[in-house]
Amino acid sequence: MHLVWLKRDLRIEDHGPLFRASLTEKMMAMYIFEPKRMAQPDYGANHHAFIVDSLRELQQELVSLNIPLLYFVGEVVEVLSTLKSRYKTIHLHSHMEVGGGWTYDRDKQVKRWCQQQGVEWIEYPIFEVLRPYQNRDQWATRWREGVDKARFPTPHKQSRPVEPPSFPTMTVEPPSSQQVGLGEPAPQRQQGGRSQGIALWQSFLAERGKNYRKEMSSPVTAFDACSRLSPHLAWGTLSIREVYRVATHAQSTLVSAKHHRRSLDSFISRLHWRGHFMQKLEDQVEIENHCFHPLFEGLRPQKGNRDYLEAWKEGRTGVPIVDACMRALVATGWLNFRMRAMVVSFACYNLWLDWREIRDWLACQFTDYEPGIHISQLQMQAGVTGINAIRVYNPYKQSVDLDPEGVFIMRWVPELCSIPKEYIHQPFEVPPLIELMLNLDRGGYPQPIVDVEQTSKQAKERVFAIKQSLEAKVLSQQVFQRHGSRRKRHSKLEG
Ligand SMILES: Cc1cc2nc3c(=O)[nH]c(=O)nc-3n(C[C@H](O)[C@H](O)[C@H](O)COP(=O)(O)OP(=O)(O)OC[C@H]3O[C@@H](n4cnc5c(N)ncnc54)[C@H](O)[C@@H]3O)c2cc1C
Questions:
Q1: What is the number of the ligand 1 atom nearest to the C-alpha of 371?
Q2: 326 alpha carbon to ligand 1 midpoint, in Å?
Q3: What is the pLDDT of residue 131?
Q4: Fold adopted by 294-494
């Protein structure tokens, strides 16, 4: 029996394990809801709901190919043991996974079990990262070779489906996020399923992405102008190769307007960054819990101010653009890059919270959670990599520049709707006379919990005091050697 273990690859197209297994005579696909995985602090209702949507659609597609998709609730080794006792000889096919320590340890257990039981486990590469991996020097070239390879054909239709077994650990329907104790997903979350991904991709290429480069940073335009493909790439309803191939083709042949071509250029660079960041975790799983640069360990207290942390999560810091972002994130499960960077900068510099204190909560909000990108970006925005420029965002400046009319703020912080536009970014800076004349009502909106200017200055002093020491510079070189981008154009921007 050839078993395809689906993980972050919920599609049939460009799917090595499904295609290869479909060349055999007896195959099944399975998704395992692992209780220990679902209990991890970085697994949330948004992820689960997206997975369930995607599995439902995938099951229909597999049925049309006479391939059963089975759902199990149990730990992987337990499930495999049951299947082995039923089928005697099994071959396991799966994509490799780039996750944190938990998935790494689970895969080691699976490997050990396979070796003990004489089960062949064929792991297929994902094209974002290189495994085996030597060093960064040739990374970009080898990544390009990987994504340029011909994609896998659609799996072959089986002459008839194998009779699905019946085990107590199996379930007919995937369990909902409520059933597995994760609660409700975000009310305006992105829906999963390949058809959703394809629709987004088509509308981005045809229309939405035309001004991507110009509009990606503002929270007013980004929800529409960005591709919104990230959860589909993270959970694999689309493969990176499909997207990369179509984007490069469109750029060279279909798109005539210069600004549209340049937008696609920026988009393609970001696909490259995706792999660049994922490779860091693949190369050094310890970065999940430790700073890239060891001298930054202990920079911030392990347990920061609880009230600050809660105010930040709930969108009541008194800094309107930050609060609007946090509320939008909780409601939708998404933020654009600039706003993610800004809210992390605010938490780590202005509120002086350690990046590990916000890591799992943020991971659970982002439907597109991709551990390698998330961990690397968090550390970068918290200033603890030692190889990136220190960027302490001024949220008031970002607010004026990117939401000049306060449209985004008013949408998510409706308490401020009656504040005159010119004061919406700092509603407590209204001159007393105007305050009196207009009899302003801020609907209980709080005063800023910190002084942004003062806390930014203090944070920069603390970070630079470490960064500028000779020892730090030597260690930064080592981090760069291991993880830094060799592309000059990118290295300053994203390490
Ligand atoms: C603190 C922080 C945490 C983040 N966590 C994640 C995460 O868990 N998962 C995730 O996919 N992205 C993450 N990002 C990167 C980025 O914000 C998102 O990829 C992007 O907002 C997703 O929206 P989109 O698909 O419309 O992106 P687009 O702008 O349309 O970009 C297309 C694709 O390129 C990739 N991409 C874009 N920007 C980046 C980037 N800076 N680094 C790496 N890849 C990129 C993504 O796969 C994205 O889907 C994080 C950024 C920050 C600052």
A1: 8
A2: 17
A3: 87
A4: DNA Cyclobutane Dipyrimidine Photolyase, subunit A; domain 3 (1.10.579)
